[in-house]
Amino acid sequence: MTIPALELLAPAKNADFGIEAITHGADAVYIGGPAFGARANAGNSIADIERLAAHAHRYHAKVFVTLNTILRDDELDEARRMAWQFYEAGADALIVQDMGLLELDLPPIQLHASTQTDIRTLEKARFLQDVGFSQIVLARELTLKEIAKIDEGLRVAPPSPSVPLPEGEGRSTPATLEFFVHGALCVAYSGQCYISHAHTGRSANRGECSQACRLPYTLEDEAGRIVAHDKHLLSMKDNDQSANLRALIEAGIRSFKIEGRLKDLSYVKNITAHYRTLLDEFLETSPEYRRASSGRCTYTFTPQPEKTFNRGATDYFVNERKADIGAFDTPKFSGEAIGEVTRVGPDWFEVTASAPLHNGDGLSYFDAHRELVGLRVNRADGARLFPNEMPDDLAVGTALYRNRDQEFERALERKSAERRIGVHLQLGETPDGFALTLTDEDGITANVALPHAHEVSKNAERAFAGLRENLGKLGNTIFEAKQISLDVSQPWFLPASAVNGLRRDAITALEAARAAARECLPRRIAASPAPSFPENELSYLGNVLNRAARAFYEKHGVSVIAEAYETDSEKGEVSLMITRHCLRYSYNLCPKEVKGIRPDPMTLVNGKEKLTLRFDCKKCEMHVIGKLKKGRQISITPVAH
C-alpha cells in the first residue's frame, strides 16, 4: 500500500524566491511563466523556470507552472507553445483554469485545476478528476465537513477507463486535494469575481485584478439608513490554518498551499518555515503519512507568521461560519500590538512596550480619522523613541503596533536556512582497493570503487578517526552524514586526498542516481466515454472566452453556453461577486439568526459608485450586483513572444 504524501506548496514570485522556498522546506512551488498566469505582475522566463526546476528536483521537490487565466482565441496557440516550453524546461505540472487548453495538443504533463475553476461541490471535483486533472485546489470557503464529503466521494468514483492507464493514475486513484492554508483571501469565490473588469476593464480571470474588495464602503439598509460608514466591508482577514492542519489532513487534504506570488521574500521564508515546522511535527508522530520531498531543514530564526504581512488571522469557514472574518478597519498590515504612548516630546515619544523596540522598527497607529498611518523609528533609547518624522497627531494613550521588526527582517535578509538530505556512508574493502557506498534517506544508493594498495596504518585510532573525518566532509553538498560505517578488516592507511576524491565521486554518483530515481508525475488519462458536466447550461459564470473551451463543454454535454463576462456581452446588472461572506451576518441582521428580519437588499456606496447586495439565504451567499461602468479603460494582457 502506498503511503500518502503531505505536500507543502509555496509561492514563487521568481526563480530566486522559489529556490528559497525549497530551501526553507517547500515540497513544491508554483510560479508564473512569461504570460497567462493569474498574477500578471509575477511573470518569469522559461530559463528561470528551468533553473528553478533543476534546483527543486535535487530534493525531489516539484515545480508547478501557472497557466491559469482564461484565454482569447488568438492566445490559444501561444498558450499551447508555452505549455510545451514549460514541459521541456522541467516543470512537473500545469495549473489550469481554461478548459479550452484540454482541447489542445498539450505535452504529457500533469494537470492541476486552479482555484479559479471554483471547486465547491463533489460533482465539480469528480468531473475535473474524470477529464484528466490529477490535483484540484478546493474553494477556500469550504468547511471540514464539505472537504471530507468531496474526499470520500472521489474515493468511490467508479473506475471505467477504456484504455490502460499508467500505474497510480487510474480512476481508482482519486485526485489529490489541495487547499489554501495561509495568505490573502479573495472575498468572492475564485473565478466568480467580475467587479474589476466591470469597473476598470482589468479582469481578475486574466490576472489583472484591481482589488475593489480592499476599498472603503458605506453600507446602507433598504431604507437608506447607514449600517456601517467608510469601512473596508469586502476586505477579509488573512487565511491562517495553523491550528487546523491535523483536521484538514483527516478530512482528506494532501497539498497545503501558501498564497503569495506577489509577497516579498521574508514572507516566503517565514511562512514556508512555519508550515514546514508544523507539518514535520505532525509527521514525527504519524508514520502513516510521509514527506513529499527529501531533506530536513534547519533555520537561523524562529518562524513567526505574525511578523510578516497580514491583515489579521482567520480560519475562514473551515470550522463553520464565524462573525469575525473581516478586516474592516484597514486592508493594510497594522502589525502586532506593541503597547501605547505614555509621553510625547518635541521629537520623541515614550511607550510602554510588550517587547524591546529597535532602531529601524516600523510602527503604525490609527489616527483620529481611523486611518492607519505609520512611522519609522530612527533611534530607540529604551522606552523613548525618536522617529524619522515626528507626527503631529500622536497623543498619550495611542495604541501602537509594530509592522516591521527590524531585527527579524535582518535575520531573514541573510542566509536563514539549510536543507540537507541524510545519507549513510559505508566504506568497505575490495580485492584491489576500497569502495564507498552512499545510501540516502530515500533508500537511493551509489557505489564508487577506488583501486588502491592495502597499507596497514601504524596508528589504528588515528587511521579510523581520519577516515571518518574525511568521509563526513559534506558541507558544500546538499547531503548530511547521518552515519559513517567502516567495514574494513584492518585500520588501513588512506591519504586524505584519496578519501576526499572517493567521497566526491560518490556524491556525484548519488546525485545522478537521485536524478534517475526521481518520480515524473504522470498525466491522468481522461475517462471514456466523456463524462457529463454537472450542468447542461453555462451562464457568463462559466468563463468561456474561446472556441476551444466552447468545444470542450459541448463535448461534455453542455447545450447552452454563454460568453464570458470579459466579452462585455452582459450589458445589464449581474452578480459581479458571489461570496460566502455575508454583511447581514456580520452586523447581526441575518434572518436565520434574528427573528423578524427579512433578507432585503442592501447597498454598498463608494463615492458615486453604488452596488446592490442581494442575499441568497438558502445557500448562505451574498451577491454583489452591478454592471459595466461607462468610460472604463480596457486593459488586455499582451501575448508574450
Structural features, described:
There is one protein chain. With 641 residues, this protein is of the alpha/beta class. The chain has four domains: 5-187 and 238-307, Copper homeostasis (CutC) domain (TIM Barrel, Alpha-Beta Barrel), CATH 3.20.20.380; 188-236 and 569-641, no CATH class; 332-413, Thrombin, subunit H, CATH 2.40.10.170; 422-517, no CATH class. It is built from 13 helices and 30 strands. The strands form five sheets. It has an eight-stranded parallel beta barrel with strand order 1-2-3-4-5-6-7-11, surrounded by six helices. Strands 9-8-28-29-30-27 form a six-stranded antiparallel β-sheet, with no helix packed on it. Helix 5 (144-155) runs parallel beside helix 7 (245-251) and helix 10 (460-471) packs parallel to helix 11 (496-517). Mean pLDDT is 94; it is low at 159-171 and 635-641.
State the helical fraction: 10-25%
Q: Could you give the order of strands across the largest sheet?
A: 1-2-3-4-5-6-7-11
Tell me how many strands there are: 30
Categorize the overall geometry: globular
Count of the separate structural domains: 4
Mean pLDDT, rounded to whole units? 94
- Fourth-tier CATH superfamily name of the largest domain: Copper homeostasis (CutC) domain
Give the topology:
Elements: E1 5-12, H1 15-23, E2 28-32, H2 46-58, E3 62-67, H3 76-88, E4 93-96, E5 110-113, H4 122-130, E6 133-137, H5 144-155, E7 176-183, H6 195-200, E8 217-220, E9 226-231, E10 238-240, H7 245-251, E11 253-258, H8 265-284, E12 290-291, E13 296-299, E14 313-314, E15 336-344, E16 349-353, E17 362-366, E18 372-381, E19 384-387, E20 399-404, H9 406-413, E21 417-430, E22 433-440, E23 445-451, H10 460-471, E24 479-487, H11 496-517, E25 537-538, H12 547-555, E26 560-561, E27 574-579, H13 583-586, E28 602-606, E29 609-616, E30 621-626
Parallel strand pairs: 1-2, 1-11, 1-12, 2-3, 3-4, 4-5, 5-6, 6-7, 7-11, 10-14, 21-24, 25-26
Antiparallel strand pairs: 7-10, 8-9, 8-28, 13-21, 15-16, 15-20, 16-19, 17-18, 17-20, 18-19, 21-22, 22-23, 27-30, 28-29, 29-30
Helix pairs in contact: 1-2, 4-5, 5-7, 10-11
